[in-house]
Design a protein that fits this description.
The structure holds 2 protein chains of 2 kinds. Chain A contains 2 helices and 14 strands. By secondary structure, chain A is mostly beta strands. In chain A, strand 8 and strand 9 form a beta hairpin. Chain A is globular, with a radius of gyration of 22 Å. The mean pLDDT of chain A is 76. Chain B is of the alpha+beta class. Chain B has a single domain, classed as endopeptidase fold (from Nostoc punctiforme), CATH 3.90.1720. Chain B is 29% helix and 31% strand. In chain B, the strands form 2 sheets. Chain B has a 6-stranded antiparallel beta sheet with strand order 3-8-4-5-6-7. Chain B has a two-stranded antiparallel sheet with strand order 1-2. The chains are: A mainly beta, B alpha+beta. The interface between A and B is medium-sized, with 16 and 18 residues.
Chain lengths: 203, 108
């Protein structure tokens, strides 16, 4: 999990921010089935190799700890035609990869109806339908959250999913630090030792 | 001249082999379809037209045909389809509704 902001491309106020969501689905026999891709943008988004379907999709909060990873996110997705709940019941949805990507784009200049706009709508579809193709746009892309699908529940309208981190940082030792003389000596001694998850290292 | 039917047919015709027509309607006669749009849709001829070379399905996939009382669209995936919106005179994407009829070309 990382946040690598490659370039500082936004030197103007105009900025478009969209999110891309990826959910891996496995068959019940354990074989990979497909990756469901959604976006909270108005139209389809194409990154050059994958297409993201625009659905009403929201996530509640995104807090970070010192490892720059988030703990849990609850996502709400439009259960279009009950397709999502059908897929979730027919395939293995839980404990598979879930990813949220944030894309910051600078919309390119565009002339619409004879009027030149400095920042256009950047609807540059090469498909039969409206689609934003971000491959050639100036943009920043970073992973906002990567984890696994934990629990879900669905109604005919809404599909709710809880995502948790992959806990890849749980093996990290607690960083040692030096305390000043005002602090109680025994506490300083114990805290200067390497602690890992509640147990004092004995060797 | 365009309408939802001509745009759907033009798209499918590029990728698949379509029949010459159904009844008196010729598949690639765009102007006739646009001119007689109301009659064509009111008589549900668009449903019969696609039923002549498609089969009904329950789950959508790309390039399936979406039919409703007064229009035709093409599925993008299991969630959405595109259609030529007559009021906006432009292609728009919409979510697949439960009331829609889904059809798949028989030779696909």
């Amino acid at each position: 999990m990382s946040k690598t902001v490659s370039t500082n491309v936004r030197n103007d106020d105009a900025m478009g921010m969209i999110h891309l969501f990826e959910f891996d689905m496995y068959l019940l026999n354990g074989n990979f089935s497909e990756t469901l891709r959604f976006t909270d943008h108005d139209v389809f988004v194409y990154d050059g190799s994958n297409e993201y379907t625009p659905l009403t999709i929201t996530f509640d909060r995104l807090t970070e700890d010192f490892t720059m990873s988030s703990d849990t996110i609850n996502i709400s997705i439009d259960n279009v035609n009950e397709e999502l709940s059908t897929a979730a019941m027919a395939k293995e949805w839980r404990n598979n990869r879930a990813k949220i990507i944030r894309v910051l784009i600078t919309p390119p200049a565009e002339t619409i109806g004879g009027v030149a706009y400095e920042f256009g709508m950047s609807e540059n579809s090469s498909a039969a339908y409206p689609r934003l193709e971000i491959a050639s746009l100036t943009k920043d892309v970073y992973v906002l959250f990567e984890g696994v699908i934990d629990t879900f529940n669905a109604s005919t309208q809404i599909f709710n999913v809880s995502l948790t981190t992959k806990f890849t940082f749980w093996q990290k030792p607690f960083p040692t630090r030096t305390y000043n003389q005002n602090e109680f000596t025994s506490i300083v001694d114990s805290m200067n030792d390497s602690i890992y998850w509640g147990r004092q290292k004995t060797t | 001249m365009k309408n939802c039917f001509t745009e759907a047919i033009a798209y499918l015709n590029k990728k698949y082999e379509l029949p010459e027509g159904w009844g008196k309607w010729k598949t690639l006669d765009r102007d006739v379809f646009v001119k007689n749009q109301n009659k064509f849709l009111a008589r549900q001829d668009h449903v019969k037209f696609f039923a002549s070379f498609c089969q009904k399905v329950t789950n959508a996939q790309a390039d399936d045909v979406v039919l409703w009382k007064s229009g035709v669209g093409i599925c993008i995936n299991q969630f959405c389809y595109w259609t030529f919106d007559h009021e906006e005179s432009a292609v728009v994407t919409r979510k697949i509704d439960k009331d829609c009829t889904l059809m798949r070309l028989k030779n696909v």
